[in-house]
Amino acid sequence: MDCHLSEELVAVRDLARDIFTDQATTDRIREVEASETRVDEHLWAELAKAGLVGAALPEEHGGAGLGLDGLCVLLAEQGRFVAPVPLWSAVVAAMAIATHGDDEQRGRYLRATASGSARLALALEEFAPAEPNAPTCTATAEGDAWRLSGTKAVVPSPQGADAVLVSATTDRGPGLFLVEHEIHREQAETTTRDLSAHLHLDGATGRAVGVPGDDALHQTLRRATVALSAIQTGVARGALALAAGYLAERHQFGRPLATFQAVQHQLADCYIDVEAAEVVLWQALTSLADGAADADRAVLVAKWWADQAGLDVVHRTQHVHGGIGVDVDYPAHRYFLWGKQISSTFGGAAAALADLGALLAAEEVAS
């Protein structure tokens, strides 16, 4: 596996880093977190103007055609700055339409998403004990449309979304459905300070994206899982850089805290965790791109590392900040909040490990 980025991906990384450095300052993030929507619409517009929102989408629909690799490079940079824009959910939803949607759905949403003039929300989670790959929300066919019932939990950043891509179960199996009309929303603030919502479908009308019972939901969940892993690697790397800078400047007993061996060991462990999480992330991306037989396994390994190691890193980096680490207004706390939120999405590290064990056991039985 070659972990070196192509010229196109390097260009995405560098351009994203420039925009986030300029736009996602600590003061600006505080301002957005106090706003009504908690989404930085100006930053979203700048990313779209630069072609980054559409980096993963097909060229024939206004994108750059860089696929999931391009999205993950962008998301890793977002995580480094904990920038409050709903990139992963909106773009993963658009990628599902690009892969499984019909011509009308592609024509209506893909170019508009790439340009920033439209935004999709993604509703894949439900309250426990529901599993993301087996939603308890149901969809019943009514002519060319589908009638959806049930509740989707913690839908990220639905404010301003033109439509919601919802997972639900039919008599043919699970599928994805595009809901374009108003849905009853129950607002819910998340750990990251994002304003999510619980969506009560209550018989909402939706249109199928793909054929219910096909692999549309499975593919979308894999993309969403890897996308979140990419953000988490960025969050962990950003937290580590913040801690290293702080410890280099902070003095105790006449010398920088960064020179104390106990602190160095803590940050060395963090560095190893971040590097390992990034390696398995790219292994998952490579397996997905190649259609490899081990793709599901690679995705679960990437998820476990992102959830477990990512959470360990934000814990350690907040700890080495000492007293200022508990200040909820200090940037270190924001990295902790993001790391905590991502580590529990789609079930967390324990769920990933259980799913990986079940997958390995099934493969052993099959062989």
TrEMBL record:
Domain Acyl-CoA dehydrogenase/oxidase N-terminal: 6-116
Tagged with keyword Flavoprotein: yes
Keyword annotations of the record: FAD, Flavoprotein, Oxidoreductase
Domain Acyl-CoA dehydrogenase/oxidase C-terminal: 219-340
Top-level taxon of the source organism: Bacteria
Listed Gene3D superfamilies: Acyl-CoA dehydrogenase/oxidase, N-terminal domain, Butyryl-CoA Dehydrogenase, subunit A, domain 2, Butyryl-CoA Dehydrogenase, subunit A, domain 3
Cofactor(s) needed for function: FAD
Record InterPro entries: Acyl-CoA_Oxase/DH_mid-dom_sf (IPR046373), AcylCo_DH-like_C (IPR036250), AcylCo_DH/oxidase_C (IPR009075), AcylCoA_DH/ox_N (IPR013786), AcylCoA_DH/ox_N_sf (IPR037069), AcylCoA_DH/oxidase_NM_dom_sf (IPR009100)
PANTHER family, per database record: ACYL-COA DEHYDROGENASE, ACYL-COA DEHYDROGENASE FADE28
Homology family: Belongs to the acyl-CoA dehydrogenase family.
Protein name: Acyl-CoA/acyl-ACP dehydrogenase
